[in-house]
Design a protein that fits this description.
Blueprint: H1 2-13, H2 24-43, H3 45-64, H4 70-87, H5 92-126, H6 141-157, H7 166-174, H8 187-195, H9 202-235, H10 242-273, H11 291-297, H12 300-311, H13 321-339, H14 343-363, H15 374-396, H16 400-413, H17 418-425, H18 427-440, H19 444-456, H20 459-476
Helix pairs in contact: 2-3, 3-7, 4-5, 4-6, 4-7, 5-6, 7-8, 9-10, 9-18, 9-19, 9-20, 10-15, 10-16, 10-18, 12-13, 13-14, 14-15
Protein name: MBOAT family protein
InterPro entries: Ac/AlaTfrase_AlgI/DltB, AlgI, MB_O-acyltransferase, MBOAT_fam
Membrane topology: Multi-pass membrane protein
Length: about 500
């Protein structure tokens, strides 16, 4: 009994760098949390909200340790300052108040994420030998900061009521399924669901179970397995053949989709078990026929955030073609910086910004007059997929020199004769990549049909499928557990 108490106390009081929605410690903890949640949700709504907030703060502690204080700090300052801003006189004074609130919400993000990069740039310019200490980036800070900003701006614009109570706002901003890697959720989506009593519906629970199964397969089976070879390629580009490096780039395109989409499925699925409906964050992005469409399908929560809170305020497409191109380009550079404070992420943003500008320019100069036949669609898809995959090199590479080395090795050392050798060396890896790409090609209607078929199954059969997938994850991923890619953002 003493040993059990000691183990429990250690679990409750220590940070876990691997803590996430797909780890066994979280799953076991969630089962206990969920049983109590169901009782409180039915009989004590206020206590249920407090209970979820406390669990969310515990979740943040497990992920961040002492740095978890940033979450309640942001919650309190954002709520109080937004209320204070709305008491100011309309016009210039309230606009100044809005700017102050947004800057206050941004201060922790600017310090923890961009201080080192800023100091490095300054000292490169000054050619000094100063080396700043590495600042630890808190997990999830970019996501809850952007949610806080969206709430403040929506209240200022009158798109969302200014009367939200602190307990409801704290629930919204700390909600643990969204903490590690989003998706970035607007207050208008979640807060109204928090404010009313919502019985947990069977269909929503089963949809949540379906999404959790999909998330586990994508993340723990596919992404984690193929990441092992991808890491070899990006960490040492010259070790493999040029063809092997090319396959590593293809593999990372699959990995990052399965990793991030898998996490989004898990987050939306866990929220659905609790009775909350969140919006989809991915819509088969590798089916896109151009880069604009890709950003309508990839990380939808982030792309719509930048559209509504950066691109449109800059002028959007309302001030002529040149201004539209500039706004698109600037939005993607900021998106690159959001992903990471380094030149390589800026370059990734520049590549996507250039791609969007070129596509919009071509649309304005007759691209839409080309016949929309199968040959054109296949060509458009191939160009888009290859360009996105090329840009992923700069997203994943350790630095610009490493990315250039990888590209050079692919260009000069790729020979089709190496394909057979690669197939014999990595048959399971190649099979998983090809199956993932093939599954990604199915129509949304077919996916929805499959989801509905799962929901209609007897509950015992659904439970058996979930247990089998969980056991498969345990058996196959023990030696290949990888952190979620987007925890670093």
């Amino acid at each position: 009994m003493t040993q059990l108490s000691s183990t429990l106390l250690s679990f409750l009081s220590t940070q876990d760098k691997n803590w996430s929605l797909c780890t066994l410690p979280f799953m076991a903890t969630f089962l206990v949390f969920f049983a109590i949640f169901l009782c409180l949700n039915r009989y004590q709504r206020t206590w249920m909200k407090l209970y979820v907030i406390l669990f969310s703060l515990f979740f943040a502690f497990k992920a961040n340790g002492a740095l978890m204080w940033l979450l309640p700090f942001t919650t309190l300052t954002s709520w109080y300052l937004t209320r204070f801003m709305m008491r100011l006189k309309r016009g210039k004074i309230r606009k100044i108040g809005l700017a102050i609130v947004i800057f206050t919400e941004l201060i922790p993000l600017l310090y923890y994420k961009y201080m080192n990069f800023t100091l490095e740039v300054i000292h490169e310019i000054l050619r000094s030998n100063f080396a700043p200490e590495k600042i630890i980036l808190p997990v999830g800070i970019s996501f809850f900061t952007f949610q806080a900003i969206s709430y403040t701006v929506d209240v200022y614009k009158g798109r969302f009521p200014k009367t939200t109570e602190l307990i409801d706002y704290a629930f919204y901003l700390t909600f643990f399924p969204l903490f590690i890697a989003g998706p970035i959720t607007r207050a208008e989506v979640l807060v109204p669901q928090i404010q009313v009593k919502r019985p947990v519906k069977d269909d929503l629970v089963y949809k949540g179970l379906w999404l959790i199964i999909c998330g586990l397969i994508k993340k723990a089976l596919i992404a984690d397995y193929i990441a092992q070879y991808n890491n070899i390629v990006f960490d040492a580009p010259s070790v493999q053949s040029g063809f092997g490096d090319l396959m590593g780039v293809l593999g990372f395109s699959v990995q990052i989709y399965c990793d991030f989409s898998g996490y989004s499925d898990l987050a939306i699925g866990v929220a659905a078990l609790m009775g909350y409906e969140l919006k989809d964050n991915f819509n088969f992005p590798y089916q896109s026929l151009n880069l604009t469409e890709f950003w309508h399908r990839w990380h939808i929560a982030l792309s719509t955030w930048f559209r509504d809170y950066l691109y449109i305020p800059l002028g959007g497409n309302r001030k002529g073609a040149l201004r539209t191109y500039l706004n698109s380009f600037l939005a993607m550079i900021v998106a690159g910086l959001w992903h990471g404070a380094s030149w390589i992420f800026i370059l990734w943003g520049v590549l996507h910004g250039m791609g969007l500008v070129i596509h919009k320019f071509c649309l304005n100069n007759g691209l839409n007059k080309i016949p929309n036949n199968t040959y054109v669609k296949v060509t458009s898809w191939l160009i888009t997929f290859c360009y996105v995959s090329f840009a992923w090199i700069f997203f994943r590479a350790n630095n610009i020199d490493s990315a250039i080395e990888l590209i050079s090795h692919i260009i000069h050392e790729t020979h089709l004769s190496d394909a057979y050798t690669f197939l014999m060396a990595y048959p399971v890896w190649l099979l998983l990549v090809l199956i993932s790409l093939e599954l990604h090609s199915i129509r949304k209607t077919d996916y929805d049909w499959l989801q509905q078929k799962f929901i209609a199954l007897p509950w015992a059969l659904k439970l058996i499928i979930f247990i089998l997938v969980t056991q498969l994850v345990i058996n196959l991923s023990q030696q290949s557990i990888q952190p979620f890619i987007y925890t670093q953002f």
